[in-house]
Each structure stands twice: as structure tokens, then as C-alpha cells.
Design a protein that fits this description.
The complex is a heterodimer. In chain A, 39% of the residues lie in helices and 17% in strands. Chain A is built from five helices and five strands. Chain A has helices at 14-26, 39-46, 72-80, 99-107, 120-136; strands at residues 6-10, 33-36, 59-63, 89-94, 112-115. A five-stranded parallel beta sheet of chain A has the order 2-1-3-4-5. Chain B has eight helices and twelve strands. The chains are: A alpha/beta, B alpha+beta. The interface between A and B is medium-sized, with 15 and 16 residues. Chain A: Pfam families: Response_reg. Chain A: This is Response regulator.
């Protein structure tokens, strides 16, 4: 590992953002965390169109499904069709237990589909496992 | 055999047989009748001739008047059918005779004296005694040729044959015409019905006759009109239903996400507040926080129940072979009943082709209720099955706390619980899901129970889908 993985959180709910931030703190995760509130903002940031938010590689995306303007599945569609961004690892983190959402997400090559546990304890564990995952995996440095 | 024939063939066949019978009857009866009449006429003619001869010859021979005899002979000549006359007196002397050419060789000596004629070579021979004023003078032999009357009869037979053949032919033709007239409309009706049943739309019967078939055709058109109308309505309703179903799907999705998100936030925030206070929170506040999170759990369970209830029958579930015994074992494993509960499954559970998911859901809900509401030291749950026409009846019987008859209706309504949710955590969705699932499959649910005497839930499930 030469550099820490940069994590982009695409999430519209403030409490859920706090949730992730808190879970990072609890797990002593020091990876840079970038936050966008919907798919459009996330795409702009990833393409470097937002000067206030430059996300260097390697990158991992934590994606919510239900968001205003551009939802998670729509965002994934755009991402996978983008020549430079199509290889980015995406974890869906959502409350949606709909079979149709899971199928659509895996069709778009997500690295995992995680149902947000109701309790914070559960969420801390989930984030800890994710942290182990991206520490374990080698990412291209492009 | 006749059932397979068309109406037209039946009519033609019937009429042809009838005409054939009439023709045959006429042909066989009329000429014979005429023949009998002719023979009778001949007979009476001969009798009168014999009488005449008897008188003539009697007078003639008694007074030796041969002129009278030959006059009688003369008179007999007028009838060309009389071909043979001999008058012989008592002494055997031939007094008068007339034999037409071609009849000379006939030997009449063998003919007995009788009122009845004897036929020899197409000639009727009569031999009688000549009696005048009770005195016998001799014998008279008279030959009457049948050739003429036979000719007449055979001519008559021929004419009758022609007539009957003509009658038969015209009868057959007539029956064809009539049956065409009758069955033409029926055949048109039949053809139209076939067109419609093969899936054609906007087809109407075009029969303008005023008879029964015409009326039937008009009634049929009316029926088609109404059918078309109701079909259009049905299509409209089903489209409406489809749209509403989609809206409902969208609605349940929105409910699942949008109602749950704030709940989760409340839950987490309460956890964080507690955490951030680092134990400086009073015991009462801690307890209140616990209750708050308990209510959040309950609301989420209610939302989940509502979602589950709204999904019944709207989701296409595949049909598969289900071994009920295996499915029940799986279900019991899933529910993991406490050790004081004993669940028995009757032997001989069926294997059926059905929608497994809703059936298993029904059993999960029934069994989890039976487990949850069992207050006995030894909890007993018994699952049985019996066969009914087209259905299986499954029964889950327990020795739990039971349900008073007053509430038997109410327990099947959504969100209805008989105990405070604080006593026994339950959403009140389980039985309503059972009822909806079973009724969705065309079955029924019944409950037999009294307070403190256990409960017996039975439901019927179709043997095949």
C-alpha cells in the first residue's frame, strides 16, 4: 500500500453522513472521506469538475440508493459508461431491501450490497469490515 | 350415430325415407288392389255368363231350341276374352262349342265341376252344370283368357312405377330445397359462431329471416354486443388495476424507504446522545432512551408488516413441487421453538405443486402465533391435513391461551392484537396476512377456539394451482 484509499460517500441523509463519520472515528479509520449529497454532485467531483473537491486515486465509493436528483442506480449506470471511472469499486450502503435494487446494483458490478443495520453497533462492525477489505485489496494507482 | 349428422342431412334423410316409404307403398299396394278388383270383376262377369248360358241352354235344350244356344254363344263372342265354350248334354253329346284359335289343344276333361275356376296357360276355366228349373241338362265349360286383364295390370304397374319414381325424385329434390331453406340460416349462424370462437372480433350474424333462426341470430348479435361491451370494460378495468398496482408498488417502496429513514435517524441519534453523555445520564433517562428505541423497533416492525400485507398476491411467485413435511420441518427449524413446546406433524403429509412462499408464510405465522401465545408448561402443537374435493385442509391445533369467540372475527383484521403490545410484542399483522394469502389462493380460514382452551386454526389450500 503506497497511499490510503480515498473514500467518496454519496448520501443525502445528514444523520446517515454523521453515522459514517462517527463509525470511521470509532474504527480509527484515517482514510480521506469526501461527501456528496447525490449522484450528480458525485459525478462532478469524480470528473474533477468541482474545484472544491478533488478526489485523487485510488478511490472507493460508498453509495446510497434513494437520493434526490440522481439516485444510486442511475449514478452507477453513468459511472459504468464513463471510460475513466468505470473501474471504480462501489459499495452500496442502503436501507432498501428490495430485490429489484439488489439485482440492478450487482448487474452494474458493485463490489458489495450492504443493508444498513438499524443499530449503530452493527454499523460500526460493517464499516470495520469494509476498512479491512480496502486495506487488503490492491488498487491501481491511476 | 345420427347425432353426428348435420341438421340438413337429417332433414333430407328423414324426408327421403318418408317419400320412399310412401312411393313403395303406392307401388306395391295400388296395382295389387287393381288386380284383385279386376279378378273380382272377371269372376262376376263369368258368373253372370254362366247364369245366362244356364238359362239359355236350359231353355234351348229342354225345348230342343238350338237357336237359343247359338244366340247365347253369339252373345259370348262379344267379349273377346272368352276363348273357350263347350256345352255338353247329359248323354255326352256336344251341343255347341266355340274355341278361339290357339286354344284347341287344351284338355278340359280334367277340370272338376266347381264354382272355383282353374287356370291353365293364362286362361281361367270354369266348369259348371247347366241347371234349369231344377233339371240338370249337361255341363258348360267356359275359358276366359287373362291376357287382356294381365296386360292392363302390367300397364298399370308400369304407370304406377313411373309415377312413384317421379314422386320419389321430386320428393328428394323438394326435400333438398326445403332443408336448404331451413338449414341455410342455421349453417350461416354456425359459420359465424365458428368465426367468433376462432377469435375474430366485430363479426355479426347477417340473417334477415323472421323465423326462429332469424330471432336466434338477432339474440346472438345482441349477446355479442353486450359481450363486446363488457370485454371493453374488463380491459379498461384491468388496465386501471395494473396502473393502481404499479402505484401501490411505488407506494410501498416509498413507504419502506421514506418512513424508515427518519426512524433510523431517531434510533441512531438516541444512541449517540447516550454515548456522548458518557454515563452522566440518569438511570431514568437511560430507561426512557431504551423505551424510545423499543418504540422505534415496533414502528419499523409495523411498517414491515404493512409492506408484507400489501405485497400479498401482487408479486408473481413461481409454482413448484412442495413436500409439506419437508417444508414444515424447515419452518419449525426457522422458528426455533423453545424446549417446552412440542410440535407434531401428522403422517402422510401431501406433496403438491403450489406457490411455496405464501404457503410457508401462512405456516410461519400460524406456528409462531401458536408458540408465542402458549402459556402452558407443556406446549403442544399438532399439525394435521385432510383431503377435500380440490383442496387440502391443514389444521394447526395448540393448547395455548385460546381466543374468546367474541374476538374470532377481529383477530383477522390488520393491526388487531388482543394483548397490549407491551405485554407480548406483536404487530397484529400475522393473521391478516394468513387470511389474505389463503383467500388469494381461493381458500378459507376458520378458527375454533375458546378462552384458555387452546386454538384450532384450519385453512384450505388448492391441491394444484
Amino acid at each position: 500500500m503506497t497511499s490510503l484509499v480515498n473514500i467518496l460517500l454519496v448520501e443525502d441523509d445528514e444523520v446517515d453522513i454523521m453515522n459514517v463519520q462517527r463509525a470511521f472515528k470509532k474504527n480509527n479509520i484515517s482514510n480521506p472521506l469526501f461527501i456528496t449529497r447525490n449522484g450528480i454532485e458525485a459525478l462532478e467531483a469524480l470528473q474533477g469538475k468541482n474545484p472544491a473537491m478533488i478526489i485523487p486515486s485510488p478511490r472507493v465509493i460508498l453509495l446510497d440508493i434513494n437520493m434526490p436528483k440522481m439516485g444510486g442506480i442511475e449514478f452507477l449506470n453513468e459511472l459504468r459508461n464513463h471510460p475513466e471511472l468505470k473501474a471504480v469499486s462501489v459499495f452500496v450502503m442502503t436501507t432498501s431491501n428490495e430485490e429489484s435494487d439488489k439485482i440492478a446494483a450487482y448487474d452494474l458490478n458493485v463490489a458489495g450490497y450492504i443493508l444498513k443495520p438499524l443499530s449503530f453497533e452493527g454499523f460500526i462492525r460493517a464499516v470495520s469490515i469494509l476498512n479491512h477489505y480496502w486495506h487488503l485489496c490492491e488498487m491501481p494507482q491511476l | 350415430m345420427f347425432n353426428n349428422l348435420s341438421i340438413r342431412t337429417k332433414v333430407i334423410l328423414g324426408q327421403t325415407i318418408l317419400i320412399a316409404m310412401v312411393s313403395l307403398f303406392i307401388y306395391s299396394y295400388y296395382p295389387r288392389q287393381q288386380e284383385k278388383a279386376a279378378i273380382k270383376a272377371i269372376d262376376s262377369k263369368i258368373q253372370s255368363l254362366i247364369n245366362m248360358f244356364s238359362i239359355g241352354v236350359g231353355i234351348g235344350m229342354g225345348e230342343m231350341d238350338f237357336v237359343a244356344v247359338s244366340e247365347a254363344l253369339e252373345w259370348a263372342h262379344n267379349d273377346s276374352s272368352i276363348v273357350y265354350i263347350t256345352v255338353v248334354n247329359n248323354t255326352g253329346q256336344n251341343i255347341a262349342s266355340f274355341i278361339a284359335p290357339g286354344h284347341e289343344s287344351i284338355d278340359v276333361s280334367g277340370i272338376p265341376l266347381s264354382r272355383k275356376p282353374v287356370e291353365i296357360n293364362g286362361t281361367l276355366f270354369y266348369k259348371t252344370t247347366i241347371v234349369y228349373q231344377n233339371t240338370t241338362f249337361g255341363t258348360l265349360t267356359l275359358g276366359y283368357s287373362l291376357t287382356q286383364s294381365q296386360n292392363t295390370i302390367s300397364r298399370l304397374k308400369r304407370t304406377t312405377l313411373y309415377f312413384c319414381t317421379g314422386l320419389f325424385m321430386s320428393g328428394v329434390i323438394f326435400s333438398f330445397l326445403v332443408s336448404n331453406m331451413i338449414s341455410g340460416n342455421i349453417r350461416e349462424l354456425d359459420a359465424t359462431v365458428k368465426t367468433i370462437s376462432s377469435g375474430a372480433e366485430n363479426v355479426r350474424v347477417t340473417i334477415h329471416s323472421n323465423d326462429e333462426v332469424g330471432k336466434l341470430g338477432r339474440a346472438f348479435n345482441d349477446m355479442l354486443e353486450r359481450l363486446e361491451h363488457s370485454r371493453k370494460n374488463l380491459v379498461r378495468y384491468s388496465e386501471q388495476l395494473k396502473k393502481q398496482n404499479e402505484e401501490l408498488n411505488q407506494f410501498s417502496y416509498v413507504v419502506s424507504h421514506d418512513l424508515k429513514a427518519p426512524l433510523r435517524a431517531i434510533f441512531k441519534l438516541s444512541e449517540w446522545i447516550e454515548e456522548d453523555m458518557h454515563g452522566s445520564m440518569s438511570e431514568e433517562s437511560k430507561k426512557n432512551m431504551q423505551i424510545l428505541r423499543g418504540r422505534v423497533f415496533r414502528l419499523e416492525a409495523l411498517i414491515n408488516g404493512l409492506l408484507q400485507y400489501s405485497k400479498i398476491g401482487r408479486i408473481n411467485v413461481p409454482t413448484e413441487p412442495v413436500d409439506i413435511r419437508v417444508m414444515l420441518k424447515e419452518t419449525i427449524d426457522l422458528l426455533n421453538p423453545p424446549p417446552h413446546i412440542t410440535i407434531t406433524i401428522q403422517k402422510g403429509m401431501p406433496v403438491l405443486n403450489t406457490k411455496k412462499y405464501p404457503l410457508q408464510q401462512v405456516f410461519i405465522n400460524l406456528l409462531s402465533n401458536a408458540i408465542k401465545y402458549n402459556d402452558k408448561e407443556q406446549g403442544l402443537i399438532n399439525i394435521t391435513c385432510s383431503k377435500m374435493p380440490g383442496f387440502y385442509r391443514f389444521t394447526v391445533e395448540d393448547n395455548g391461551m385460546g381466543i374468546a369467540p367474541a374476538y374470532h372475527q377481529k383477530v383477522f383484521e390488520i393491526f388487531q392484537t388482543l394483548q397490549s403490545r407491551d405485554t407480548v410484542e406483536g404487530t397484529g399483522v400475522g393473521l391478516s396476512i394468513i387470511k389474505k394469502s389463503v383467500e388469494d389462493m381461493g381458500g378459507t380460514v376458520t378458527l375454533r377456539s375458546e378462552e384458555n382452551k387452546g386454538a384450532t386454526f384450519s385453512f384450505t389450500w388448492p391441491q394444484s394451482v
